[in-house]
Amino acid sequence: MSKKIIISLSMLFTSISLFLLSCEKDDICISSAPSTPELVLQFFDKNTPEKSKNISSIYVKADGQTDGLVFTEVDRVNIPLQTNQSQTNYTFYSNFNPADGSYDNEDRLTINYTPIDSYISRACGYRTLFALNQNDGVVIEPDSDNWLSNPEIINHSIILSDSTHVKLFH
Question: What does pTM read for this prediction?
Fold first, then answer.
């Protein structure tokens, strides 16, 4: 009887050892793994183009979304792009008041890009990088009272969310 127990325990130990040894680092997605970056827009003074300029309150909403993003006293915003399309449309509402939803002006931006899937690991899967189009990467829809003007693409490759990709003047 004890020989059967020893053989069973030996087989159990061998099975557990093989299982633990078969795990790879690639089976765990760590929190510092790169993720899909967002587009970074920085705002500048149209009268002094080299100087960044804060926006007191702005509401940014993508077409087809019910909720948007509210930013207060910022000179830059990070906004997500759609990973399964080559264009994302946003409306920017200036001097937005979250209490009653009022705003002074709205401008529509169209962002045109090529999504590029990038493999991270088996556990993390893929992330999507973006390449802004050369000629029409960011377009402000003209209207009679645009508050945003002259989009200037600084970096066509959207790989990280820690530096400015596009300058917008107001």
Answer: 0.82
